[in-house]
Amino acid sequence: MEVREGAVTIEVSETRHGASEGSGDGVFYNPVQELNRDITVGVLNAVSDECDSYLDAMCASGIRAVRAANAGYSVAGCDVDPAAVELARENLERNDLPGEIHHRNVNAYMHETHHDVVDLDPFGTPIPFVDAAFRSARKYVCVTATDTAPLCGAHFESGVRSYGAVPRNTEFHPEMGLRVLLSALVRTAARYDLAARPVLSHVSSHYVRTYLRLERGAQAADRLLEQLGYIDHCQKCLWREHERTLVADPTTACPECDQSTWTAGPVWLGPAHDTEFVETVAGSIPDDAGTTDKARDLLASIAAELETPTHYDQHRLYGRWGEPNVAMDAFLDSLRDSGYDASRTHYGGTTFKTTAGVGEIYDVFH
Ligand SMILES: [Zn+2]
C-alpha cells in the first residue's frame, strides 16, 4: 500500500488491527500519527540552524527518517526487524533521499553513535530506550509514548513500575500522563548530568509526545530537578494543590470538603513547552503537509495555554455542582473579570486552566 505524507511517498504493508511494531507480517505504520510527524517536521525545520543529523531510533517503515531526510537532515534509522530495514531503505530510495538504515539493536546502536536529534517513536513505553537516547543525542530528544493507561494511572502498577512515579487517575488524566512521562525523562537525563527541558509537548489521540532540549552540566540538571514535585487531589470536589519538592508531604484531607485526598508524584511541575519555540514550530510546518491546519491549530492552542501543572474539565465541575454548564468563552471571561487568569487547553474542548482554586471558581459563578 502506498502512502503519501507531506512531500514524500512511502510503501507500507497493509496493517491489520492489533499488528505491533516490527512483528508478524506487517511493518508498523500508524496513520493516526501523521499529525505527530507533521509537527516533528516543523520542529526539525525550526532547529535546522543548530542541528544537522537525525536518528529515527525504531524506524519500521522509515517514514520519519524519509521525512527528516526530505527536510534536509542527514538521517540514520535502526530496526531489529530485517523486513523493516529493507522497507525503510526502499522508501528512502523511492524518494531519492540519502540515509543509512541499520539492522541493529537500537540501544546498542545509540550507545555507539551520536546524533543532533534522536527520535524515539516506539509502540508502548519509551522507557527501555531513554537511557541510550540521552547518551546518543547532542541537542534534542523527541519521545512518543502510547502507553497512556499506565501514564495516567488507569493501569496503576504498570505506571509505577515503568516511570518510577505514582500516577493518579484524575479528571486531568492526559496532563497527568504527560507530567509523569516528563518526570521520568528529566530524572533519567539528570543521571548523566544533563538537563532535558521540554520545549513542546502535546497529548493527542491516545499518545503523548514531547520534545526536550538538552543542556549539559550538573547545575543545569539540578535546576530542572527542582521543578519536580507532588500533586494532591480530591476526587470528590476536584480540589488540587501542588508542591515542588522531592520530599513528599501529602495533604490527607481536602481543605474544601474534608474528603480524603490522594497524591501523585514525583511529576514534572515546570512548563511543558516554551511558547516562543511553539510559535516558531507552527510557522515551520510545511504548507503542503497532510495536517497543516490541524497542527497549527493545536500549536496555537498550546501556545495560549496558561502555565499551570493541572487543568480542569468544565463538565466535571458542573456535574459535581449539579448544574448545566456555561458556554466556554463566557465562562473564561467571567473568571478573568473576577481577576483570575484563564485559558482553554489542547487537552479537550471542555478543559481549561486558571489561577483560581476550585472553591474560587465556584464563588465566581454563585
Ligand atoms: Zn474536596
Structure description:
With 366 residues, the protein is an alpha/beta fold. It is 37% helix and 23% strand. The chain has 14 helices and 15 strands. The strands form 4 sheets. It has a 7-stranded mixed β-sheet, with helices on both faces. A hairpin with a 2-residue loop joins β8 and β9. The longest helix has 18 residues, at 173-190. It starts with a strand and ends with a helix. Residues 16-25 have low confidence and may be disordered. The structure holds zinc ion (ZN). Zinc ion (ZN) is lined by residues 234, 236-237, 239, 254, 256-257, 259.
Features:
366 residues; alpha/beta; three-stranded antiparallel β-sheet; 15 strands; binds zinc ion
Q: How do the helices and strands line up, and which of them pair or pack?
A:
Elements: E1 2-5, E2 8-11, H1 34-46, E3 53-56, H2 63-70, E4 74-79, H3 82-94, E5 100-103, H4 106-112, E6 115-120, H5 127-136, E7 137-145, H6 148-152, H7 156-163, H8 173-190, E8 194-204, E9 207-216, H9 218-225, E10 228-233, E11 240-244, E12 262-268, H10 275-284, H11 292-303, E13 312-313, H12 314-321, H13 328-337, E14 342-344, E15 351-354, H14 358-364
Parallel strand pairs: 3-4, 3-6, 4-5, 6-7
Antiparallel strand pairs: 1-2, 7-9, 8-9, 10-11, 10-12, 13-15, 14-15
Helix pairs in contact: 1-10, 4-5, 5-8, 8-9, 10-11
This protein binds zinc ion (ZN).
